[in-house]
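Entry for the shared binder. Reason: the reviewer on the internal report wants the predicted structure included alongside the sequence.
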Amino acid sequence: MKAWQVKQLADPEEALEISEVDKPALEDGKVVIKVEATALNFFDILLCQGKYQEKPPLPFTPGAEVSGTVVEAGENSQFKAGDRVLAQPQMPNGGLAEYVSADENGSVYKIPDAMNFNDAAAMYITYQTTYYALHYRAQIKEGEVLLVHAGAGGVGSAAIQLGKAAGAKVIATAGGPEKTKVCSDLGADVVIDYLTEDFIEIVKKETDGRGADVIYDPVGGDTFDNSRRCIAFDGRLLVIGFAGGRIPEAPANHALVKNYSIVGVHWGYFKRLYPEGVVEIHDNLMGLYEEGKIKPLIYDEFAFEKVPEALNMLGSRKTWGKLIVKP
């Protein structure tokens, strides 16, 4: 079968080569899946460059999110050939391949017939992370105000949709007219172009000076610092990541005086400790999808041969939502 492999650590166009490799054999506790779609993530670029915390031995195949059809499963498996699934294959044999093997306990989940494979591939990490953040960590309530930063990105777009599904008033930030329109189309009640507008001032105006109850921050840096200035009493500031580059620090006295919580969100750790919680979240997400309340934002679909080009586009930060590769 064909698979993309990182043969040397470099930028994607230099690191990646299409190779002919053996189709994965069926192992105990695993299923073999014919890949129908693979979603790209920014950390795929870091893996190519050797800058990610996980450093698999060369050569390896990146790709953490796939959807497809089960072609082989063990006799006592909960899955059978023909099942439509989404999955998280593990390094060094990731999802940028025609077939993958994945652990059926904790890494493979059935999808409804109504869900297409592109949506399924784009669903797993971003929507799991965001559901966990909003419902498990922030315990968001109907009628609260949710401020979502980088609303046109993968996790940000999920946060807008899941916030609306939870009954929150959603204020979203994004950079430029294209991305702000994306946020509006996703259902955000208020959209702020952070390139030309002051989100602190607008959040305070929209909340009569009270501030946002929940702030969803995948950016960090100055965005985190400024978010502390427009958070409500009893507010929860969710630390999702640091796409802005700088890891901020927060003075404890400020959290004390304004009575807010800084809440870490490490979904991967939660997944390891409480796999049953991930199953519960998956079931809830599938229900919301079938009800039409959520749908992954997909920027574009790329042919298998165009993976380096797609990763370069993702790295430019000019895209939005998720990029999908079709084998």
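Summary line for the report: The longest strand covers residues 30-39.
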